[in-house]
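Job type: complex structure
Entries:
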Amino acid sequence: MAQTQRSIEVGPVTKTDKMIIKCEGINKWYGDMHVLKDVNLSINKGEVLVILGPSGSGKSTFIRTINGLEPIQQGHIEIDGVSLTHDLKDIEAIRKETGMVFQQFNLFPHMTILKNIMLGPIWVKKKPKAEAEKLARELLDRVGIPEQADKYPGQLSGGQQQRVAIARALAMQPEIMLFDEPTSALDPEMIKEVLDVMKELARSGMTMLCVTHEMGFAREVADRIVLFDGGEIVETGTPEQLFDHPQHERTKLFLSQIL
Amino acid sequence: MSVDLKIIEAKQIAPPKTSTNAWEWAKKNLFNSWLNTILTFIASAVLFQIIYAVFGWVLTEAQWDVITENYKLFMVGQYPVAQLWRMWAALTTLTLMFGLSAGRFKGTMLRLSGILLIVYLIHLGAPFTSGSTKIWLATQISILALGYLIGHYFVRAKRFTLIGWALSIPLILFFIQGFGILPAIRTNVWNGLMLTLLIAVFAILVSFPIGILLALGRTSHLPVIKYFCIAYIELIRGIPLITIFFMAQVLLPLFLPTGLTIDNVIRVMLGATLFTSAYMAENVRGGLQSIPNGQYEAAKAIGLNPVQTTFFIILPQALRAIIPTIVGQSIAMFKDTSLVAIVGLVDLLGIAQSVKSNPEFLGRHMEVYVFVAFVYWVIAYSMSYSSRRIEKSLGIGER
């Protein structure tokens, strides 16, 4: 249903007109190294944005600035009306709005799957335990592994762990989901099960930012694709524009290397 | 495709048998070359000689009456006989908690209670224990069994047992010290194994939370806290324990305002605690550093605040990783309590010194030291054994 709403206009694709992420003039340095160069990007509610780029292009760094995991030295980030500042209160407010999925899953190895998912709702959202458990079981159902609830992360396959990580992020009922190369650490036969969950999520109308190398996923699901290189945005467009009619030389080079 | 798989599965064969009988094992490991055969014979001869000498001495030559006659001294020193029931009451409290925990938690606690039971049974059966002692020992055994049954059948909540442990500590101290309700027992008659255990348990229990705080402080971003913790840890680690004991005995009274005195034993306990805390802190810091950055990031991304992150995510994993070092540190502290004999306290080793210089038992120092070493070993080994058990049980489902 959500897919039918997706338009294919040029420029910022609008699913709804409500802007939910606004990044203006982001600059970041690691020591003397300029890793993000004047990045401007805004994302509307319900939009699925895929960020492509060669390794070291700053795409992972960029997505991690959005929930304050990486501090920026210049620029302005606004999530759903809240400015990301150094104030811990703002950062925590933004982290409640955004869920994040990491390349290395980063599940908590000393807790069962259920406890991993329940931790945030209980301690951050102050939900009653029974309600948090009900939510956690529903989410495990949604990502297709309800039977793993009482196991520990170490007993699950990589694909299953990543699906738990997605469920854990969803348990906070975020407005935005950030995916930082969610399939890059997976064995090939497990990539599909994670991508399927992400596709389902995109169809449900979730605002998503995905850093990924999965071109098939990008073409099928993305509303808009952004190509990063050398710490700056090289090109933006719909999948059709970017894959079939790339404008920029660097985009052409990147695509020729990867496709 | 599936048919092919079945064929492959069917082709599986059992692994070759590796079990061997004693003779084959010996041939493979002891007599596999001329050199090894010679070494085997030499080693056996030396081993036999040592075992023969040790057991010969223990069973025939040694006169163990120096131990049995002074048994009370070794255990509780000069604690007044009329008040001995209080020591037994303290021990009973401990026994009950061991029994309860064994019944509730099984595993490691069950095995530790087993060791306790064996110790009680040996003393019960020993010819040198008096009638009243035997009655108390029988009480301990029944309390242990009772505790086990209660823990097994009635105590559902883990919390109940943990609260019990927390309450048992002041209760035990109440029995030993009196707190003004029972007649006060001056600390200079707190001797023997009891004193050793009191100092060690106090130092280990109290230094653990202090060590965690120091380690967290050392990783803090606030410079005042950070540098205070670094200074404390590095200062204490640079001073030998014996020096700290001397300072606690000699220097501390000079700094305290006149009229205020801190008891001798308390001073030593504090000294031992301050010392162990610094080492605990470094152990915990090692654990903290072993936690990958992704764990912090995942906790942040969920929205946990720094305190929640530390207590739910980081510390549980860090402490798990350093159980062997914590137990190692505890064993070291337990054995280091023997240094208090030098500053005038009469712990287990202090009692040994005074017993061997008793004219009645002249020349029996071998027996005395072997006995003392054996007591230290039993306790230290129980600690390291339970550490290995805990590691194993925590290893399941981890990573």
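Summary: The CA atoms of residues 9 and 96 of chain A lie 32 Å apart. Residues 188-203 of chain A form the longest helix (16 residues).
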